[in-house]
From TrEMBL, chain A:
Residues 131-234 form the Fibronectin type-III domain. Keywords: Cell membrane, Disulfide bond, Endocytosis, Glycoprotein, Membrane, Phosphoprotein, Receptor, Secreted, Signal, Transmembrane, Transmembrane helix. This is Growth hormone receptor. Belongs to the type I cytokine receptor family. Type 1 subfamily. It is found in: Cell membrane; Secreted. Signal peptide: none annotated.
TrEMBL record, chain B:
SUPFAM superfamilies: 4-helical cytokines. Residues 1-24 form the signal peptide. This is Somatolactin alpha. GO terms for biological process: animal organ development; growth hormone receptor signaling pathway; positive regulation of growth; positive regulation of receptor signaling pathway via JAK-STAT; response to nutrient levels. Belongs to the somatotropin/prolactin family. GO terms for molecular function: growth hormone activity; growth hormone receptor binding. InterPro entries: 4_helix_cytokine-like_core, Somatotropin/Prolactin, Somatotropin_CS. It is found in: Secreted. One of its GO terms (cellular component) is extracellular space. It comes from Cyprinus carpio (Common carp). Keywords: Disulfide bond, Hormone, Secreted, Signal.
Length: 598, 235
């Protein structure tokens, strides 16, 4: 219990008189008292006191300091050294300084034997190190934008502190601020002698200072002198940066605009860059109209075309056409192929022609049920063949036009003609017919041009004949055949559209008729349009055209090799086209026609 | 009277003889299996560095413990006690010089022995401190952890110093920390009054902090002497 009480008593002393060591300032309202004790390097220390309000004690010597080390409870000793230069200071040098030892000091007035003040401490607890020296800075780097920079601040420990020996372990604290600002930025404690400061602004002046303290103690020393840190801004760098940004964004914006433009104007651009291949056209005739229009309109249209003027056909000596010989069966006997053909047909083969009554819209049928105009037919009589080269008959083709290598078409045998019970009276005629369509009932629809005559001949005969276009369209576009697979003797000059001649070949094989051919209707006003879809493919192919192989000196088109029979009309089935023509199948392009001309 | 004293001393030595033996066993390394193997040796300089690191850490943690305790239990007017450095720290068997000049004059042997003695003198009080702190109702866990940590580290510090003594001074030491047992008797008493026990513990912490600082300084001085004798022994 005794020991416990002694503990308590020793502490109570301190309770009564709190002692502040860090403030060397004096409190004038009090009596004589100690104002503070400090050690700079943990080797010596000083104490200061003040007389306070007792002015009569200000003379030197009136107040004296006594100290006692608590190690071995030694007696009180007087201050070893009263500093001469500084008033009221007691200096304890190395000899009298003991670390880790409690000191108690007393301020006494010896004359009056009064102890005015007392304080106890240990030296390591009153150490305030000197400020570091040699503070300087170096530039670490500047940011890309030129707006920020980093510095490395260096210093040296205070010379009074024996850091090298390890007598004192110091930690440092760096503070910085923008110049003339009131707020200091504090960095963490640093045990080394350098510190990096990041994120400073260029073009701003900074003040940097440093102070130190013993590690694990609380008493900081004084601050060192401040240094100024300043990095000038580099103007060029900053100016280029936004320019580059603007450029990049501008380019991106333009690219986006272009893409949008392209996507919005896709169709038009497609037309500009990838123009559709122009379909063969007849000047002034709308393909759509031909497809879907009424017969009257078509008739008017076609008649207005120059190229279909009957004159055009005057110079077609080589044109062969079917010659209808209604009234003269003897004539038929003279004819060669047609007779054979008809004979074959009479035999009940599938060559019987049938004419469909034209109920379908747009289906032109030259083969009206009624007997064709006798006048027209008469023109087909062989008697007219004497007209000369204008319309040589098929039957005479071999003789009158020997140079023509027109392939004789015996295609009638191959014509996909169905046997029809109802055979018109003129079925015995000598003629070729091209099957252009098949009725749903299985009937065969012949193209009227052939039936009446070869279209060219008809033109010759009747100028007023309206030429009707028989269009075959195969899905992509309609090709209009202005002519005629007509002869090579036809000068290519007539009509701008003369360049196109279609020669349907392989397509005949039950497929689409790629070709078109002129159809001249006599009185039938119904336009005859070939269907787009091919008829039943069961029928053997019939080719309405012959592929022009070459042109001879007389401007004759050499069609298929002359080995074949003379053609009645320049139509030949595909079968008679053994050799692939060198010409492009189906078309005689203008340039090719140009080659044909002399 | 003399006889009594001699008998007392002799009895004391005899009773402590087993303890001496236990401490006399030279340090050997034990691997995971428990068998004694040859320790991998490190250089003396490196060992001294590690010992210094230990001492630094112990000192820093002791200061933190002191601050924690002070913030939690000590009323503000009594904070000045800290500066006093502990009035009634337990005395050492032999005096340790306090001034720098004196310390510079003592030999390496004395330095090491002083450190060893300091370390050993604090082993028991720290254990006591752990138990007494755990009795407080609202002692922060950090404080308890730190105290425990410090007492563990003190053990390894002692081992390091012993090795250093063996290496540097070429002497085997038969030491015992039981010499200091009698000094602990004041601490063993439990005071019924809360304030007193608090103040006592506070004083204990302050004293320990001071001695930890001492240990660190001595060891650093020793290191300086090892590396550069001339500049350390000067003035």
């Amino acid at each position: 219990q005794y020991i416990v009480h002694s503990w308590f008593l020793s502490f109570s002393e301190v309770v009564l008189e709190p002692f502040q060591f860090s403030l060397p300032g004096s409190d004038p309202s009090r009596g004589p008292h100690f104002t503070g004790c400090r050690s700079r390097e943990q080797e010596t220390f000083r104490c200061w006191w003040s007389a306070g309000i007792f002015q009569n004690l200000t003379e030197p010597g009136a107040l004296r300091v006594f100290y006692q080390t608590k190690n071995f409870l030694s007696e009180w000793q007087e201050c070893p050294d009263y500093t001469r230069t500084v008033k009221n200071e007691c200096y304890f040098n190395k000899t009298f300084t003991q670390i880790w030892t409690s000191y108690c000091i007393q301020l006494r007035s010896v004359r009056e034997n009064i102890t005015y003040d007392e304080a106890c401490f240990t030296v390591e607890n009153i150490v305030h190190p000197d400020p570091p020296i040699g503070l300087n800075w170096t530039l670490l780097n500047v940011s890309r934008s030129g707006l920020h920079f980093d510095v490395l601040v260096r210093w040296a420990p205070p010379p009074s502190a024996d850091v090298q020996m390890g007598w004192m372990s110091l930690v440092y604290q760096v503070q910085y601020r923008v110049r003339n600002n009131s707020h200091w930025e504090m960095l963490d404690l640093e045990s080394g002698t350098q510190q990096s400061i990041y994120g400073l602004h260029t073009d701003k002046e900074y003040e940097v200072r440093v102070r130190c303290k013993m590690s694990a103690f609380d008493n900081f020393g004084e601050f060192s002198d401040s240094i100024i840190v300043h990095v000038a801004q580099i103007p060029s760098k900053e100016s280029t940066f936004p320019t580059t940004l603007v450029l990049i964004f501008g380019v991106i914006g333009v690219v986006i605009l272009l893409v949008l433009l392209i996507f919005s104007q896709q169709q038009r651009l497609m037309v500009i860059f990838l123009p559709p291949i122009p379909a063969p056209k007849i000047k002034g005739i709308d393909p759509e109209l031909l497809k879907n229009g009424k017969l009257d309109q078509l008739n008017s249209l076609l008649s207005s075309q120059d190229m279909y003027k009957p004159d055009f056909y005057h110079e077609d000596p080589w044109v062969e056409f079917i010659q209808l010989d209604l009234d003269d069966p003897a004539e038929k006997n003279e004819s060669s192929d047609t007779q054979h053909l008809l004979g074959v047909s009479r035999s009940g083969s599938s060559h019987v022609l049938n004419f469909k009554s034209d109920d379908d819209s747009g289906r032109a049928s030259c083969y009206d049920p009624e007997i064709p105009n006798p006048e027209d037919l008469a023109s087909l009589l062989p008697g007219h063949s004497g007209r000369g080269d204008n319309h040589p008959l098929v039957s005479r083709s071999s003789s009158s036009i020997p140079d023509l290598g027109v392939q004789q078409t015996s295609e009638v045998e191959e014509t996909p003609i169905q046997t029809q019970p109802a055979v018109p009276s003129w079925v015995n005629m000598d003629f070729y017919a091209q099957v252009s369509d098949f009725t749903p009932a299985g009937g065969v629809v012949l193209s009227p041009g052939q039936l009446n005559s070869c279209p060219e001949k008809k033109k010759e005969e009747e100028n007023e004949k309206k030429i009707q276009f028989q269009l075959v369209s195969d899905g992509a576009y309609t090709s209009e055949n202005t002519a005629r697979q007509l002869s090579a003797s036809v000068p290519p000059s007539p009509g701008p559209e003369q360049g196109y001649q279609t020669f349907p070949t392989q397509a005949v094989e039950g497929n689409l008729w790629n070709g078109e051919y002129l159809v001249s209707t006599s009185d039938s006003q119904t336009p005859y349009l070939l269907p787009e879809a091919p008829p039943a493919p069961i029928l053997p192919p019939v080719s309405d055209y012959t592929v022009v192989q070459e042109v001879d000196a007389q401007h004759s088109l050499l069609l298929n090799p002359p080995s074949s029979q003379p053609a009645i009309c320049p139509h030949s089935p595909n079968k008679h086209l053994p050799a692939m023509p060198t010409m492009p199948m189906g078309y005689l392009t203008p340039d090719l026609l140009g080659n044909l001309t002399p | 009277m003399n006889r009594l004293k001699v008998l007392q001393a002799w009895l004391w030595c005899v009773s402590l003889w087993p303890c001496w033996l236990s401490h006399a066993v030279p340090l050997d390394c034990k691997d995971e299996t428990g068998s004694l193997t040859q320790c991998t040796s490190i250089s003396q300089e490196k060992l001294l560095d590690r010992v210094i690191q230990h001492a630094e850490l112990i000192y820093r943690v002791s200061e933190e413990s002191c601050t924690l305790f002070e913030d939690m239990f000590i009323p503000y007017p009594l904070h000045a006690l800290r500066n006093q450095g502990g009035n009634l720290c337990h005395t050492k068997p032999f005096p340790i010089p306090g001034s720098k000049s004196e310390i510079q004059q003592i030999s390496d042997k004395w330095l090491l022995h002083s450190v060893l003695m300091l370390v050993q003198s604090w082993m028991e009080p720290l254990i006591y401190l752990q138990t007494t702190l755990s009795r407080y109702d609202d002692a922060p866990d950090a404080l308890l952890n730190k105290t425990k940590w410090v007492s563990d580290k003190l053990l390894s510090l002692e081992q390091g110093v012993l090795v250093l003594i063996r290496k540097m001074l070429d002497e085997g030491i038969l030491t015992s920390s039981s010499i200091f047992e009698h000094t602990l008797t004041p601490y063993n008493e439990q005071s019924p009054e809360v304030l007193e026990s608090i103040l006592r513990d506070y004083n204990l912490l302050i004293c320990f902090k001071k001695d930890a600082h001492k240990m660190e300084t001595f060891l650093k001085l020793l290191k300086c002497r090892q590396s550069n004798k001339l500049s350390c022994l000067s003035y």
